Amino acid sequence: MLSVIPNPPRTALPIVGSPDLFPVRRVYCVGRNYAAHAREMGANPDREPPFFFMKPADALLNVGPEPTELPYPPRTENYHFEIELVVGLGKGGRDVPVAQALDHVYGYAIGLDMTRRDLQDEAKALRRPWDLGKAADASGPIGPLHPAAAVGHPESGAITLAVDGQVRQSGDLSEMIWSVAEQIAYLSGYFELAPGDLIFTGTPSGVGPVRRGERMTGAVAGLGTIVLDVV
What we know:
This protein is an alpha+beta fold. It has one domain (12-230): Alpha-Beta Complex (Fumarylacetoacetate hydrolase, domain 2), CATH 3.90.850. The protein has 6 helices and 18 strands. Keywords: Metal-binding. GO terms for molecular function: acetylpyruvate hydrolase activity; metal ion binding. This is Fumarylacetoacetase-like C-terminal domain-containing protein.
């Protein structure tokens, strides 16, 4: 049976130390998972149940070892960076216990949840979905996936974002309100998770706008760096 239109390419991530690829199914993102970021967004930093939104898989932008161009999207004048640890699942399931959740992780990557903040703020004010703010083309730049078999399961370590060499975000993975294992367990109560799912695990404080011509450098301890030139 033939497709009536050309089949869209499957989004996939390169894997550090392997010629193979990690095919992406869904992209989940947790909101306000660092207390300081929750406060800067005007929210309660207490340990309330987490909430999630999604990005399309084809909104991901693979970032290689060299600086990668990140297109500035239309319909915004306030495009914000949010540096995040990204989790790639190698095994799925429903109602995954917290104690077993990390067994489902294939690996970790550095990612950015780029956000048209003006459109997100408008959506919040009107009680509308966040898609226009969060799901722009190329709004999920992401580095290669590091297998957990090689790097372990990071529970602490620096997570930073610099713009033109000036550090704008600086936090520690230990500051997450909900741990990686807790996020996986919680999500699996609402969705049947599957191999190929990604979870963007939240951002520390310091989010802010980036402009055309600026260079962003994101880093997570043990995972190296990614470099993006905004065009």
